[in-house]
Every structure is written in C-alpha cells, then in structure tokens.
Description:
Layout: H1 20-29, H2 34-52, E1 55-58, E2 77-81, H3 108-114, E3 119-124, E4 144-145, E5 148-152, H4 158-165, E6 171-176, H5 182-188, E7 191-194, H6 204-208, E8 215-220, H7 223-236, E9 257-260, H8 272-287, E10 291-294, H9 303-320, H10 322-325, H11 337-347, H12 350-370, E11 377-381, H13 399-409, H14 414-419, E12 423-430, E13 436-443, H15 448-461
Parallel strand pairs: 2-3, 9-10, 9-11
Antiparallel strand pairs: 1-3, 4-5, 6-8, 7-8, 7-12, 11-13, 12-13
Amino acid sequence: MSRPTRVHAFTDDALADHDAVALAALIRSGELGVEEVEAAAVARIERVEPSLNAVAFAAYDSPRRSRTKKAPLYGVPTFVKDNTDIAGMPTNHGTDAFRAGPARRDGRYAGQFLSTGTTVLGKSRMPEFGLNASTEFRVAAPTRNPWNTERSTGASSGGAAALVAAGALPLAHANDGGGSIRIPAAAAGLIGLKPSRGRHLDGELARTMPLNIISEGVLTRTVRDTAACIAALEDHWRNPRLAPIGLVRGPASRRLRVGLVLESVTGAVVDEQTRAAVEHTAHLLEAQGHVVEPIPVPAAPGLAADFVTYWGMLAGLAGGLGRFAFDRSFDATRLDGLTLGLRKQFTQGGWARLPGVLRRLRRAARIYAAAFDRHELILSPVLAHVTPPLGHLDPAVPFDELMDRLQRYVAFTPLHNITGTPGISLPMGMAREGVPIGVHLSAAYGDERTLLEVAFALEEQTTWPTLRAPSEAGDHTASTTVEG
Length: 484
C-alpha cells in the first residue's frame, strides 16, 4: 500500500515554526512587521489551498486588522469560520442554498475574538450549517486532511483545522455544537478546547436556541496558544457566573482522580487504535501521579436519540426559515441530503417530542455533573474510530446509512454540548492510516483551568505529531510534501 499524501506549508519565512504566542512576541519587539507576517501567511495558504480546499472566502487584499497594538495576539494571522459574521465578509454557513452579501457588522462573538488582536485574512470552510462530521459538500470539492489527503479533516471546523495543521496559520477560530472543535482537532492532530457553556459571548444562532449547545473557541498546535487565546478572550468579557480561568502557564502539581470511559452514548464500539491511544494516555496520567479508574458512561439511556431529535430541529429551522434567517435568495431545493433528511425526520413528530427531549437533555447535565463529585477529570476517546476516508460521510450517502455512520463515529463529543461542560481534544496517537488520533478530557462545568494544566503536562511528557519532519528543517520553500 502506498504511503499517504501529506501537505504542509512550513518553511523558513516570517511564520517559520512559530506558534501564535511566539509570533505575537516577535511582532511586539519589532523583529517582525504585521504586513510581513500577513504576506507569509497568504503565501502559505495559496500554496496549500489547491490541495486542501479549506478557504470559504479570502480577504487578503482587505484583511481585518486589530486597532489595539497592545492586544496579546496583535498581528497574528487567522481565519474565522464561515458561520460567524465579520463586517465586509460574506457568511454562507457552508451551504449552496443562498449566496450572502458582505456582513454589515461584526457578530456578537466576533467582537470578542477580534479583541485578542488577531488579523482576519478570510473565512474557513465548514459543511452545511455545521450538521455533518466531515467537511464535504453537495457540489463543491471536500476539504482534505493535510496528514492524508484521502481522509476527512473532520467537521464542522474542518477548513480551520486543515489550515492550522498544514502550518498555513498558527491558530484559527472554531466553534462546537456537537464536537466541531474537538473532532477536527482529533482528525488533524491539533489542540481543540470546547469551553463551558456561556464562557464566551454567544453567537447569534446560539442565542436563539432553547438549549444552547454551541461554544466558541480556537484550534491551535500548542497548548500555550489555546491558553493565551482563552485568557485574551476573558480580558474582553468574562461571564460573572463562572470563575475566571486567567492565563494558565503550565502544569499544576495536584494529584487528580480521573474516570476512564470507553463506553459510548450511541453504543458504538471503539476501534482498537483509538482504544490503545486512550489507554496509553491513561498510563501517562498514572505516571504523573494521578489515579485513573474505569467508570460507566455518566449518561441516561436514549440520550443519543434525543440529541438527534434536537439536531433535526436545527436542520428544520434552517431549512424552513432560511429566507428570513439568512437571505431572500434562499432555495431549500439546494440543501444537501443530510440537512433535508434531518429536516424530514424532525417533521414526523419532532415538535410533539421536543418538550420531553428538552427536559431529558437538561437532566443529562445534572447526571453528568454528578460524575465530578468523585473525579476531577473524565478521559475518553474523541471519536469511536479513526477519521474516515472522504466519501464515507458524503452528504449524498443515503440518509439512514449516513446517520448510522455518524452515530458509529461521533459517539462521545455531543454529551459535553448537552451538559455544557468543557472538553479538550489532544493529539495522543497516530493511526496506521497516517492520521492523528485524538484523546478527550472533560472537567466539571467552569473548570477549563484543570484541563489546560493537564494538557500542558501531557504536552511536556510526549512528542506530539507534526507535519514538518526533522529532515525538512532546512527546507526553504513552502511545499506540498508527497510521501509514497
């Protein structure tokens, strides 16, 4: 079998191998200029984009720059996901059902994200309305995984993950309504923290939900970048109902009790490579002095079915109210098969079931919270199996078969959207297929600090995968690397 095609843009330009924290420090010191950094990022993106298809909208000629030079991440280039309004850029939510004009103003959360000082160069691709777990489309070419271009980069923040993993950007905006930060992080070998519900300002869609399942965040290649961005976001606005996180700078020395969960809420069986990565992480945590013990999944039966019903409501609202919610040009006949299938399924009794579904979903938060009476952390897979080949989750797959595949894959992450608890994906393994394997840690509501401290410790203890091999250290050209 031939080795996978790998794509990266790492080279000895202004971005070099710097993470966002290092890049911001170089800009502050005057060693690098903002325009120089932007030009390097654009050159990298343009080199890998033909292979990855990660860009929804490019604003290279009119980037959105921060006016606050003292912001912690001033001048760091980034992309915003295609479901978040940035003034002057269109927001198409990954769909062909309409074509948006430029947004008139920044979205509510966008203002908080921009306060970190980052420079927005464009919008990243996502599947239609973020409903799929792979960034694949009805008409357009799929977004490809830079580790193996025949594999999915996850979703729904798939474009963001592809750009960061390939080294085109040091970090990118992402959000998570069922795993959409953590799934791409797992597929692309990144750090993906889903914050607690309400940790940051909500986007417009989240504010309309009867139960908010969406959290805003970033995808990064280093834990310190995630920690720095979370702290910078908190400087702009902090939820008074949650204890502050502050800037987490490294591991803590506390001895923690960790519950190990390998049973999924959907009943999906975890594949042997993923199980091995989780068990290896458990051994590393024990070596650090933590106590790890197996526990049953802290969730009520039927939770997965209730989440699918709620997911169907979102698809139904998007399809039924598209002309009012998005644009007058909205054409429901151009929706993809997954959106149409979820919408149809929900219309068959979904509204009648919804009150009971909402009661059970809210009860799930209390059940999950009780697990942290005995444990500070819960360790699990991010996904039940390695990221699949492109086409496996294509929205053109017959609906019932596609839903079965999704539930056999996305079998862990939705629990934390339902409960509002924070969770983080860390790149703790490599699969035979040449793609990373993510491992998940979750903590009690509001306790992102513990997740970041443990993530720092694991980062120090292990060598996480990187697309730039040591033999390429002297390479002076942004490249498409092909192995085989």
